[in-house]
């Protein structure tokens, strides 16, 4: 309700701004699920938009709508952009999937790009990033650096992407210390700084000396800083909030992808594709390794190089929590298994919410 | 362990407590201000911005209170002088606050904040358990309790409180007796705004010292529910805020603890289930509820001329 009204207000502002005629060759439009000021998911997408503006200058005009709720309202927002003469529209949240396809059908000449989805069409491409690659690296760092052998994981919702993140983190940690323990706390929100901070405090109070998160605010890292434990930035480099506590951060960098795709629209070479890239392509970037002993930083860099070289962190042997085998020794999981992951690896101290 | 839980509960409960006690005074005067969330978020952003620019937490808190009051003055002007619909105006105030705070706060995203220092009393603060829990909090926590005590005393033991309650219970009679209903209500609304601003400052300067859009994340609405929950009695607001804080913090602790295995969705909904349960229990006593509910709550007052 609140975000809906806010979106409406933003929509009016945009109508006013958009009425000024422009001579740009291509208009690229973006729809965000959160406020661009979340310093997390939507913030990073907007950084990508700004990179497009910086790259193309007057040739490309951009527009965006923030805090657009997932569901039927998104359809109106997407359709308005399509009518307004946007040539390419990026819809940046999973919940826009069906709405994007529906509008795309009505506007065959407009290109659509849907983030994190799995349905495509002739004029709808999908894109996502392999965040789990970064999670594996920070898991290794956690196991090296933890004194208590316990890490705390603040999780949002039990969707495959989050579950894969937890598994990748623990696999990384187990590769260093097979007995490493992971406590998972589900906060059932993407964004509530107060609640995320409370979760971090609870985890520290119960013995975790490494905090990691799959929620969007900087609050857990701030708690880590105050309590003298350590953690990792999420989506953005959060070192400013935790000078002594942040080891590194998994940064979502959408800029190269956005620039590339807008360039293709300019050149007339755009095609519908499914892009799922990671560290190697620069879509996932590790922030500088800080507050770490040299050997640990070197290990992290070595793992990063190995992943960039094509190694998949989800390579067997992988045992599920129930004891069954997920992947034999040396066999990597295929993309579908990772994108649809709904099971824990052995060693997670939690029961997956169903 | 228990101490750690208690400390987290205190931080979780304080913003709810302060915002709720302010709204309680507003509702006791017969005005329903649904804009608590909007005033709170404005307090949070202005408090953060001023503390960040001046380097003084105290100035930040003062500015946050002023921001909350400015928002509530706008509300008061619309509903008391222009007799606008209170529900619609309150909702609009929340939307305005969330949008406007995002605009003001744009420059402060990603800027580390400044934390209001905790109190330290030599001797007392060093006592195990009692020291950290009672004598090492920041000033706003104590201010919150002082506010509740002050409001409880004023409402039921002073002439001012009697007038306020009279205005809320029967504005026509209060008007006939020569009290200025509009003036009393406007002052009550300002007080509510000040409290919401202070609660916002607690969010951005003590709870999570940073600014991010929408950081109050619905706490203003919980504060509103707490007022009903307390059946308009200040001391029950304390009980409600701490119950709510305790249940939501225990949820997180229970999840992190390996012995407890309850679905997290159920645990997350516990604070709300607890609220509903207590509301049912309280409203079972019909007479008591009626006695405490301000009879003119939400009703506009237009003096005869």
Outline the fold blueprint.
The complex is a heterodimer of chains A (354) and B (305).
Chain A: H1 2-18, E1 26-31, H2 41-56, E2 60-65, H3 72-83, E3 88-91, H4 97-106, E4 111-115, E5 124-129, H5 131-145, E6 150-155, H6 160-176, E7 181-186, H7 193-205, E8 210-213, H8 219-227, E9 230-235, E10 246-252, H9 255-267, E11 274-277, E12 284-286, H10 294-308, E13 318-319, E14 325-327, H11 335-339, E15 348-349
Parallel strand pairs in A: 1-2, 1-3, 3-4, 4-5, 5-11, 6-7, 6-8, 7-15, 8-9, 9-10
Antiparallel strand pairs in A: 10-12, 13-14
Helix pairs in contact in A: 2-9, 3-4, 5-6, 5-10, 7-8
Chain B: H1 2-28, H2 36-54, H3 57-81, H4 86-105, H5 130-134, H6 139-157, H7 159-169, H8 171-176, H9 181-207, H10 219-229, H11 234-256, H12 264-284, H13 286-292
Helix pairs in contact in B: 1-6, 1-9, 1-10, 1-11, 2-3, 2-4, 2-9, 2-10, 3-4, 3-9, 6-7, 6-11, 7-9, 10-11, 10-12, 11-12
What does this structure look like?
The complex is a heterodimer of chains A (354) and B (305). Chain A has 354 residues and is α/β, with parallel strands linked by helices. Helix content of chain A is 40%, strand content 20%. Chain A folds into two domains: 2-129, Rossmann fold (3-Layer(aba) Sandwich); 132-252 and 284-349, Response regulator (Rossmann fold, 3-Layer(aba) Sandwich), CATH 3.40.50.2300. In chain A, the strands form three sheets. Chain A has a seven-stranded mixed β-sheet with strand order 12-10-9-8-6-7-15, sandwiched between helices. In chain A, strands 2-1-3-4-5-11 form a six-stranded parallel β-sheet, sandwiched between helices. The radius of gyration of chain A is 21 Å and the shape is globular. Chain B has helices spanning 2-28, 36-54, 57-81, 86-105, 130-134, 139-157, 159-169, 171-176, 181-207, 219-229, 234-256, 264-284, 286-292. Chain B has one domain: ABC transporter involved in vitamin B12 uptake, BtuC (Orthogonal Bundle). In chain B, helix 1 packs across helix 10, helix 2 (36-54) packs across helix 9 and helix 6 packs antiparallel against helix 11.
